[in-house]
Design a protein that fits this description.
The chain is an alpha/beta fold. 41% of the residues lie in helices and 18% in strands. The protein has 2 domains: 191 residues, 3-Layer(aba) Sandwich (Isopropylmalate Dehydrogenase), CATH 3.40.718; 160 residues, Isopropylmalate Dehydrogenase (3-Layer(aba) Sandwich), CATH 3.40.718. It is built from 12 helices and 12 strands. The strands form 2 sheets. Strands 2-1-3-12-11-4-5-10-8-9 form a 10-stranded mixed beta sheet, with helices on both faces. The protein has a two-stranded antiparallel sheet with strand order 6-7. Strand 11 and strand 12 form a beta hairpin. Helix 1 crosses helix 10 and helix 8 packs parallel to helix 9. The longest helix is centred in the first third of the chain and has 19 residues. Pfam families: Iso_dh. Belongs to the isocitrate and isopropylmalate dehydrogenases family. LeuB type 1 subfamily. It is found in: Cytoplasm.
Length: 363
């Protein structure tokens, strides 16, 4: 059965890493007898330039009628002077809201072959394998009112943090479900000593926990969580938290691996298509140079194959191909200090395709 995938290349290096993804998906289709249909849409800065909107209706329609969505990246200095509600990032926020993508999954694992790239000591990062489950459609990023008031010395800015019981409960349950499938421990991160929304969050976690007696859980304040991620990241199995905290902590956790260019993410709804994207930004400083690391995008495909298409064997084959390439010492510029040895985006993509074929022949 043909799988329809909405491809949103976006800005900066987004088109380059999305091109890598479609090449790899086509190869997986050839090797495993699947057919993928790619439908392209504009999002972010490129959409603003073409239509005046960071999320055109045509793009939204394409996504809603697809089985999965792959995003490259949005944003860049070209659009930094636009008002907040017109910036490229609003396209992504709007897409998350329209597709009801309430759960963002960000796995953080250590590749043994890349351990030297981490800023942390080997004894701290060895065996790190955690999953951050971030609430994605509520909180301060979407709260109203959101406005500027007054002028001059009297000027103020207002952002509002709002969570409903339903929003908190559905993401907390998702966290418990993943903990149940993994190692059985959930850490709920909040700021309950200060925020009323966090006190509601903590109460709901305690209530939902009764439905998952096999999962142990604990509460942790977000400032402590930020420290613990660096001091002892192995203590975490599944971390569930609200939108802004999850945004910040997952970026912090990504640096345990040594590069933002390595980590994937998936954003899931209750019923509709999921959104799969690397967590790195648009990297406008290297856009068009052909040196972007495609591996985070390719790892995002393993999540797409797993969650959207229920193809665990294909997902495992792709992940093992990525592991093989890294174990052989292949690196893009962000993963090595010696730029003369660095592979281009296309070269790294081709190495992964070769490793996929080697695995299939061996199997």
């Amino acid at each position: 059965m043909k799988k329809r995938i909405a491809i949103l290349p976006g800005d900066g290096i987004g088109p380059e890493v999305c091109e890598s993804a479609t090449k790899v998906l086509n190869e997986i289709g050839r090797l495993y007898n699947h057919e993928f249909d790619f439908v392209y849409g504009d999002l972010g800065g490129v959409a603003i330039d073409k239509t005046g909107s960071p999320l055109p209706e045509e793009t939204l329609s394409i996504c809603k009628s697809s089985d999965a969505v792959l995003l490259g990246a949005v944003g860049g200095p070209k659009w930094d002077t636009l008002p907040g509600h017109q910036r490229p990032e609003q396209g992504l926020l709007g897409l998350r809201k329209q597709l009801e993508l309430f759960a963002n999954l960000r796995p953080v694992t250590i590749y043994d072959s890349l351990a030297e790239a981490s800023p942390l000591k080997d004894e701290i990062i060895e065996g790190v394998d955690l999953l951050i489950v971030r609430e994605l459609t509520g909180g301060i990023y979407f709260g109203e009112p959101r406005e500027r008031r007054g002028e001059g010395e009297q000027e103020t800015a207002v952002d509002t943090l709002v969570y409903s019981r339903q929003e908190v409960e559905r993401i907390v349950r998702k966290g418990f479900e993943f903990a149940q499938e993994r190692r059985g421990h959930l850490t709920s991160v909040d700021k309950a000593n200060v925020l009323e929304s966090s006190r509601l969050w903590r109460e709901i976690v305690d209530e939902v926990a009764k439905d998952y007696p096999e999962v142990t859980y604990s509460h942790m304040l977000v400032d402590n969580a930020a420290m613990q991620l660096i001091r002892n990241p192995r203590q975490f199995d599944v971390v569930v938290t609200e939108n802004m905290f999850g945004d910040i902590l997952s970026d912090e956790a990504s640096m345990i691996t040594g590069s933002l260019g390595m980590l994937p993410s998936a954003s899931m709804s209750a019923n509709g298509p999921g959104l799969f994207e690397p967590i790195h930004g648009s990297a406008p400083d290297i856009a068009g140079k052909g040196i972007a690391n495609p591996l985070a995008t390719l790892s995002s495909l393993t999540m797409m194959l797993t969650f959207a298409f229920k193809l665990p064997n294909e997902a495992q084959a792709l992940q093992e191909a990525i592991n093989t390439v890294l174990e052989k010492g292949y690196r893009t510029a962000d993963l090595t200090k010696d730029a003369t040895d660095a592979l281009s985006t296309n070269e790294m993509t081709q190495r992964v395709i070769e490793a996929l074929n080697e695995k299939t022949v061996t199997a």
